[in-house]
């Protein structure tokens, strides 16, 4: 045992004993506090609200029971093109007004969850707070949904890229983390270096659908056209808002020779498309 780690050469007392003197009471109190701190550190917490969890949920998502009730799974009826849930009553899928008026460049888009409730916090923690542990379960759910929605008939999975300066600052691309887990479920290769974002527009929250579509035009390019020629591509992203970014990615991929581009997102904003 190295000098100064746990024991000294004379009395054999631990560092805790030496720090607290000869008082057994103080040693017991300190040991109890240490155990409690370790329990808190090692016990999983709800990513959305911070509440301690009794264990890791079966889904793998770090959400408490209360926050789970705010998570909305997207189900039919929905727009068969963009995947936005239908606002009108009825059991059948109906193409939404937005897709009827201005069809996107992708074939179909789907998302696992509505971007609301605890899912907002979950995605934000993955995106900005380095909660990498949430990417595998979210990505596996995306893969399962893609299979159910018949988006698994693809040759290649491609994540929506970040602009280089943003990637350097953040150190990772959350879409690629999700894409890797999605690919593991679908049994398809993921290639993160095919698309490049040549311009960073920053936050687009204040812009409407038409403005977003105009601003994102020309923001992406295909680095290796040979990888997408005659291929069916599944584009993966964390959040689908208006679909402008996904549509522009699909446009440049199709122009580079992709046979078809579908989109799978972790969550999507629910809109009234008329």
Question: Can you offer a commentary on this structure?
Answer:
The protein is an alpha/beta fold and 274 residues long. The protein has one domain (65-204, 214-268): 3-Layer(aba) Sandwich (Rossmann fold), CATH 3.40.50.2020. The chain has helices spanning 15-20, 24-42, 65-68, 97-101, 118-128, 135-148, 164-170, 174-186, 209-216, 244-255, and strands at 109-114, 156-159, 195-197, 220-222, 232-240, 260-268. Helix 10 (244-255) links the parallel strand 5 (232-240) and strand 6. Helix 6 (135-148) crosses helix 8 (174-186) and helix 9 packs parallel to helix 10 (244-255). The longest helix is centred in the first third of the chain and has 19 residues, at 24-42. The chain is globular.
């Amino acid at each position: 045992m190295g000098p100064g780690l746990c024991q000294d050469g004379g009395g054999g007392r631990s560092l805790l004993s030496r720090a607290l003197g000869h008082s057994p009471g103080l040693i017991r109190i300190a040991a109890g506090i240490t155990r409690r701190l370790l329990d808190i550190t090692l016990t999983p917490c709800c990513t959305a609200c911070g509440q301690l969890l009794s264990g890791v949920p079966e889904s793998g998502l770090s959400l408490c029971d209360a926050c789970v009730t705010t998570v909305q799974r997207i189900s039919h009826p929905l727009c068969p093109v963009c995947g936005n849930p239908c606002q009108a009553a009825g059991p059948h899928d109906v193409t939404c007004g937005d897709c009827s008026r201005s069809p996107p460049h992708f074939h179909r888009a789907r998302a696992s969850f509505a971007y609301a409730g605890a899912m907002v916090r979950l995605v934000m923690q993955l995106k900005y707070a380095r909660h990498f542990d949430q990417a595998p379960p979210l990505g596996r759910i995306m893969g399962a949904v893609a299979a159910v929605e018949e988006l698994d008939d693809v040759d290649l999975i491609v994540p929506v890229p970040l602009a280089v300066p943003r990637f350097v600052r953040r150190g990772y691309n959350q879409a690629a983390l999700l894409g890797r887990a999605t690919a593991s479920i679908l049994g398809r290769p993921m290639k993160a270096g095919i698309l490049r974002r040549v311009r960073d527009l920053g936050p687009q929250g204040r812009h409407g659908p038409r403005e977003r579509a105009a601003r994102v035009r020309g923001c992406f390019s295909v680095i290796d056209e040979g990888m997408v020629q005659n291929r069916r591509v599944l584009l993966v992203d964390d959040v689908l808002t208006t679909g402008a970014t996904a549509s522009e990615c699909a446009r440049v991929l199709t122009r580079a020779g992709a046979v078809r581009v579908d989109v799978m997102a972790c969550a999507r904003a629910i809109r009234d498309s008329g």
